[in-house]
Design goal:
This protein is mainly α and 314 residues long. It contains 11 helices and 4 strands, in the order H-H-H-H-E-E-H-H-H-H-H-H-E-E-H. Among the domains are: 39-126, Arc Repressor Mutant, subunit A, CATH 1.10.10; 191-264, no CATH class. It has a two-stranded antiparallel sheet with strand order 1-2. A two-stranded antiparallel ribbon has the order 3-4. Strand 1 and strand 2 (112-118) form a beta hairpin.
Length: 314
Amino acid sequence: MDTQHPSAPSRARSRIAGHDHPNRGGLIHDNSRHTARFTVIGNHLAQHADLSLLAIGLGTHIQSLPPGARIDIKSLAARFPEGVARIAAALRELEKHGYLRRERLRVPDGRIVTRTISCNQPPAARHHRPGHESTDRARERGGDRRGGDRPVRPATAPAPAPDPAPAPNDCAPGPRRKALPAVPSPSCSAPALLQAAADVLADLRRHDTRLLLSTADTTHLAPGVAAWLERDVTPAAVRRALTEGLPEGLLRRPAALLAHRLTALLPPPPPFVPPAPEPRVRHPFQNCDGCERVFRSPEPGRCRDCRAAPREGA
């Protein structure tokens, strides 16, 4: 009796499906097994139906980074050719669909920092039940394993179960925008003063791109800046108070942060300074027409003594 070889293959290894049809177009994978420096990315992100291509690529890049890496808008804009606005929009997409969650924390030295949490499997993908393979995809694979191009009968996908409510710590989209905090009001709401305050707010984005404010936010914050300006604070000093020492990373509500600073750092009114007395008027010297005496007078004429003495021949 011949010796059996349990490790021998029972049948020949099948060829790659794409090679069975060399005349057909489409994608063919030439894969190699990774043993180091690789990241597992779910198809729910790589083939997301609602995310833009930039958001998918940015989400893949973020999931490949080590813990503690900088993923604020400035760092990403310095790394990639896309601008700040496009990267910010892609981050908002990832946050909307649960792939990012931002938390603001206060560190021991009193500063507020933003911590970004990357979710490789958000709740929508975590509780999703994939259906059976579609007929078109089965035909692309070359029919069933019994040979031939026999069409595959489409299977009825089971009705997906409703997604359970996400836990409090899940990567869920943030709440709706809250109302901005109140700001100080100036004692005089002159149009010129409010326009100067709006100009200060519009100029903040030149010093920090994260402080790009909308028209509604500018209208709400302008009275607070006007309250600073009427207290003899220069526009440059107001700008320094609003931009220095900002937390690193993405600012989720820059207008709310500015409203808090305008209220918490409002300086007191300047001390009262009485108006200076009017300077004494000193008239020029004049020569008296009667006695040639020099005296001070706004106009030429006679001095006081000559005006008091009776004229000759009177």
